[in-house]
Each structure stands twice: as C-alpha cells, then as structure tokens.
C-alpha cells in the first residue's frame, strides 16, 4: 500500500513490505529475499533518503521537484513488481507462426536457436537472460522468472530474433509472437 504526503516542496512516501520478504538497502541497491530467491534493484535518485523501518520502506527529500516525485513513484512500482515476483513467478507465453517453412527451436545454453526460419540456412539466435526458464511445448514457448524485467526482455529478444525486414508483413506472417503477458486474464 502506498501513501503520499505532499507538503511545500518536501517529499515523503512510504510503502509496506509484504510478510516473509526481507529487504536491505546498501549503496543505492535494494536487495529483496524470500526463501532462496533473491532479487536486486539499483536506485539512481540523487538526494532521496531511503530508510527501512519495521516492514516499511520510506523515501524522503526535504526540497524536491516534480521529477523527484515521479522518480520515487517509478522506484515504488519496480519494488512492487519485485514483491509480486517473489510471491509468484511471472510467465510469458509465446506462439510460433509459420506459413510454409516449419521452424525448429532448440535451447542451447543461454541461447534459443531458431533454424529453418523462412527457409534460411543460417540459424537465428535469441539471448535468454539469467534467471529465466524456457520451456518449449510444440509451437508454444513459456518463459518464467521471478524478475519481471528479465522475463520481459527475454521475450522481446525472441520476438526481435524473428523480425522480418523489407517484406510485406501482411504476406510474410512468420515469426514468434508474445500472446500472453503476466497479469493478463
């Protein structure tokens, strides 16, 4: 739960840490843990004082601007994503679409290898970030991670690897596309 208090050019914001989650703040880095899972987030707002007291994270700055307010709200949103990710992993669903040439998908180390895309002889690669689990079931790919940013960036890497340039997208509809985002029903 977020609470905002805005006085004359002073900033104070407090947010509650959910039960079972341990948060630490040191050298502009938040470290949040629950069980074996640890997520970190780097904060880059000058002059904002951050304190962790009795299950609350408090942000304050005596003289602040609109940019400081928006930055603190952005940090709060990122921390809320971390808290939700520690409770339950984020899952992205991607579907492969091919008209003539069937794609062959393989996971090798930290890369997804896409072969026979549009009949190409050279394999395309998409980087899978650390902490993201990839499961391939038929033509569906499932990405799951406790870190929303890593899962989202990996999904974008896979979509970008199958991007078609200089061809009409209405005719060449092949590719791998995100069909389900976390939080969607």
Folded structure, characterized:
By secondary structure, this protein is an alpha+beta fold. Helix content is 19%, strand content 43%. The strands form four sheets. A four-stranded antiparallel beta sheet has the order 1-2-7-6, covered by helices on one side. Strand 9 (104-108) and strand 10 (111-115) form a beta hairpin. The longest helix has 22 residues, at 66-87. The chain is elongated and about 60 Å long.
Q: What coarse outline follows from CA principal-axis ratios?
A: elongated
**Count of helical regions:** 2
What is the CATH homology-level superfamily of the largest domain?
Ribosomal protein L6
**Chain-averaged pLDDT:** 91
CATH topology grouping of the largest domain: Outer Surface Protein A, domain 3
Span from first to last CA? Answer: 23 Å
Order of helices and strands: EEEEEEEHEEEEEEHE
List low-pLDDT spans.
none
Evaluate the radius of gyration: 21 Å
The structure class reads alpha+beta
How many domains, as an integer? Answer: 2
- Tell how many strands the DSSP assignment holds: 14
The CATH architecture of the largest domain can be named as Alpha-Beta Complex
Largest sheet, described in full?
4 strands, antiparallel
Question: Strand order within the widest sheet?
Answer: 1-2-7-6
Assign the CATH class of the largest domain.
Alpha Beta
Helix content: 10-25%
Strand content: 35-45%
């Amino acid at each position: 739960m977020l609470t905002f208090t805005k006085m004359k050019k002073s900033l104070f914001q407090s947010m509650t840490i959910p039960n079972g989650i341990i948060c630490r703040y040191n050298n502009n880095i938040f470290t949040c843990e629950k069980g074996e899972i640890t997520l970190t987030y780097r904060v880059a707002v000058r002059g904002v004082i951050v304190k962790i007291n009795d299950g609350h994270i408090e942000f304050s700055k005596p003289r602040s601007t609109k940019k400081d307010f928006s930055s603190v709200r952005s940090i709060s949103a990122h921390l809320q994503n971390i808290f939700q990710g520690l409770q339950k992993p984020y899952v992205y669903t991607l579907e492969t679409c091919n008209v003539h040439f069937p794609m062959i998908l393989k996971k090798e180390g930290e890369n997804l290898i896409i072969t026979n895309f549009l009949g190409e002889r050279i394999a395309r690669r998409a980087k899978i970030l650390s902490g993201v689990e990839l499961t391939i079931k038929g033509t569906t790919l499932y990405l799951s991670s406790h870190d929303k940013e890593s899962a989202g960036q990996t999904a974008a890497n896979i979509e970008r690897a199958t991007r078609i340039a200089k061809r009409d997208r209405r005719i060449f509809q092949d590719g791998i596309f995100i069909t389900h985002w976390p939080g969607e029903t």
